[in-house]
């Protein structure tokens, strides 16, 4: 996506809103989690170094609130020699994934470095999942309203689409299926929640996000 397209999205989306209380909660939760989970993150980094060398982090530009791009951090799941120009989706049995990477994908521990994005104010604990620039053109027909909200680590989309890679039929083009089925379903889910969210409901989704990581995931709101 080029600079003019990003500028257009920023003009279409009104000023993003998050709120002082939510930002305070973000800082408290991300700060505490960073301290508590620091030994685990160090262990993951060492495992990735021993398995494939540097770099242990995967950094990708994503769309933030108001369509503003930012650099999102994850632990690396793919081999270090994989091209950044490969498929923009992670599929079941993806041959690019390493042994450690498969474990990280299954547990979602690859998302832990995004606590830094939360501390920086680029992401929230609860918010829509930040989309990659490869699918930025999908924000149209009213779906661009999702960009009013700060992207998050957890939320309805992240829980209900916990096993998103399993939803792709083998007989279809995954990029086309994502654009025509999964992306609109996730955007509509976000737009049904975030305009009427409360602090209490955000806390509920934090709890459901934890349950999703340990294995409890409700059925997604799509027929696949």
UniProtKB/TrEMBL annotation:
Gene Ontology MF annotations: phosphotransferase activity, for other substituted phosphate groups
Keywords annotated in UniProt: Exopolysaccharide synthesis, Transferase
Pfam families reported in the protein's UniProt record: Bac_transf
One GO biological process term: polysaccharide biosynthetic process
Keyword Transferase in record: yes
The keyword Secreted belongs to this UniProt entry's keyword annotation: no
N-terminal signal peptide: none
Family: Belongs to the bacterial sugar transferase family.
The protein's name in its UniProt record: Sugar transferase
Protein's organism: Rhizobium loti
